Amino acid sequence: MLQNPVFIGITGSAGKTTTKELLLGMLSRQGRVIGNYESFNKVEEVAKTILSVRPTHDFCVCELGADKPDSLNESLIMLQPGVGIVTLIANDHLGAFSSRDAIAQEKEKLVVSLPSTGTAVLNADDELVLAMAKNCAARVMTFGISEHADVRAENIGAVWPDRLGFTLVHGAERMEVQTRLCGSHWATSVLAAIGGGLAAGMTLDECAVGIASVAPFEGRMQPVTTRDGVTFIRDDFKAPLWTMDSCFEFMKAARARRKIIVIGELSSVGPRKELKYAKTAKLAQEIADVTIFAGPWASGALKARKPGGEDALRVFCHVRDAAEYINSITREGDLVLLKGTNKQDHLLRIIMARAGEIACWRDDCKRDSFCNQCLDRTKPSGAPASAPAMIVSDTALQVPQSDLYTVAPSEQVIIGLGNPGAEHIGTPHNIGYEVVDHLASSLGLSWDDAPEARIARGSSQGRSVCLVKIQMAMNLTGTGLKRLSEYMAFGPEQCILVYDDLDIPLGSVRTRLSGSAGGHRGIASILEAFQTDAFRRVKVGVGQTEAKLNRVEYVLTAFDAASRAAADLAIKAAHARVIEMLADHPIMR
Questions:
Q1: What is the CATH number assigned to the segment(s) 401-584?
Q2: Is 416 helix (H, G, I), strand (E, B) or coil?
Q3: Is residue 182 within 8 Å of 216, Cβ to Cβ?
Q4: Which segments constitute the Mur ligase central domain (predicted)?
Q5: Spatial separation of the C-alpha atoms in residues 7 and 12, rounded to whole Å
Q6: Residue 422: how many CB atoms within 10 A of its CB?
């Protein structure tokens, strides 16, 4: 027999926190409970929870994180659980493990640690989890939709605005279960929690009653309706790529006046990240009336834009700009899914901005907590709002249009990227400037000053060219270039972007006809401003031969003598590639 307090461990690739909160809610009707705080499931947090257990506690429920091999060892030694629950195995932390099998082996340690008097609660719908029963000395209870599961769900329904409900089957018992959760995919967590409740001595009816009172946990498909009638579904705690399917299924089935999907930074994406973003954008557009991406890889979604779909798909480098746009277009009756990685993008700020409750717009905050818990949320910080393409005004550029010539339809515009100011001369980040300087010198052109830009106009091999250096900080290049294009009447199809690339060896030069920003903030700002990735490019490699400096420090530090020689050769090579591109890849209409 299990003795008080009953220690229960929960692990798996997803659903741990919701399963824990559901189980705590159920067990609280039977006695005094304690569990680890929110999703803090590393060994230190498990230790804090166990140290907080008192003789008066009846149940201690701990979710156990496993982000690398052997990360469960110490937690299990401390917890010594009598009940172990494994939700599912997926690709979270796949980079730290060799395979999904290796992930399963780590999670299986919870099952192996159980005493013969204990109970393992295993997902019958997941082969890797079900296989753990072979090495289990404890009693095994399975859950799922499989007909062989001990605890089974039938007739699952969860079409928004309805919440998840189903017929619960256990042996000869059947009963209707109604939850407050959003989405049919939560059936796994509900069944896992019920299995845990049964293992801890609850009846099926007691489990069903307890489940009905538990609200969605923060940031896990949590509905938030604003005063003006817009409903946000917050799934903004984490966003592994493999979880997008369940979110899309929820939105596709939902009943709403208009559906909007907002996607921040995805995790567990693997190689060829920009293609994964494009595929995700394609799927989202099949469901949503409006799809919005925010973050450093958002531009990868532009490849999926459909002809004439400018308003159906938008991308933003910064969450602040995304928030301004989203809150300008949403209306009563809209259903908005927020899917992001809280530690990376803090998408909750989109909702908080609607009520004027946020002033912090940092893009580099790595705090685990949600912004509504942060004491710094009302302190102004982060970059100022950009001037996105959709709100550029005719007065943004303080110069009469007549003072800037109009670019002819056949003229090609070559933009070198860099940062203005003497302190940036000779740095890797300014090699784009140097390439167009080299072009201007070889063509005998002189630079003229224009607001926010320097311009040189001439011809190369009989082709009219306009050389441009935007005189704004690199990450604001898009704002300046968009303004200039409005006045000089040129479009993306006429442009060639020349810039540095840290992922290409120093001295190498590569070309590209379109694509995402690849993490380059200057390029990302351009793609955001124009809302297209259809820019030809010449990328100049500036990668470090030895990693002596961090990436940011390196690109803003002048080349040393040896690197300078290689950079000079690269500038000449890039010059040649630009000339080739003018001839071989003319204006794309």
A1: 3.40.50.1470
A2: strand
A3: yes
A4: 10-195
A5: 17
A6: 6
Phi first, then psi, for residue 496 (nearest 5°) are: -125, 120
CA atoms lying within 13 Å on the CB side of residue 35: 24
Distance CA 520, CA 509 (A): 16
The span from the CA of 196 to the CA of 123, in Å, is: 12
**Residue 113, helix vs strand vs coil:** coil
Q: 3-class DSSP state for residue 120?
A: strand
User: Does 429 participate in catalysis according to the annotation?
Assistant: yes
Amino acid letter for position 321: D
Angle at 576 (CA atoms; ends 421, 529), nearest 5 degrees: 50
Q: What is the pLDDT of residues 480-516, one digit of tens each?
A: 999 999 999 999 999 999 999 999 999 999 999 999 9
Cα Rg for the chain, rounded, in angstroms?
A: 28
- Sequence ranges of the domains in the chain: 6-212, 222-385, 401-584
pLDDT reported for residue 190: 99
> What digits encode the pLDDT tens for the residues 346-371?
999 999 999 999 999 999 898 989 99
How sure is the predictor about 382, in pLDDT bands with cuts at 50, 70 and 90?
A: confident
Residue 13 is given by DSSP the state S
How sure is the predictor about 395, in pLDDT bands with cuts at 50, 70 and 90?
very low
State how beta strands 448-450 and 33-35 pair: unpaired
Q: Residues 310, 531: contact at Cβ < 8 Å? A: yes
Tokens at 463, concatenated: 């082709």
Q: Is the confidence at residue 213, as pLDDT, over 70?
A: yes
At 354, is the secondary structure helix, strand, or coil? helix
Q: Strand, coil or helix: what is 453?
A: strand
Residue 187 above 90 pLDDT? yes
Angle, alpha carbons 337-342-347 (nearest 5°)? 45
Which superfamily is assigned to 6-212 in CATH?
Mur-like, catalytic domain (3.40.1190.10)
Q: Which CATH number fits domain 222-385: 3.90.190.20, 1.10.1040.10, 3.40.50.410, 3.40.50.300?
A: 3.90.190.20
Measure the CA–CA gap between 289 and 279, rounded to whole angstroms. Answer: 17
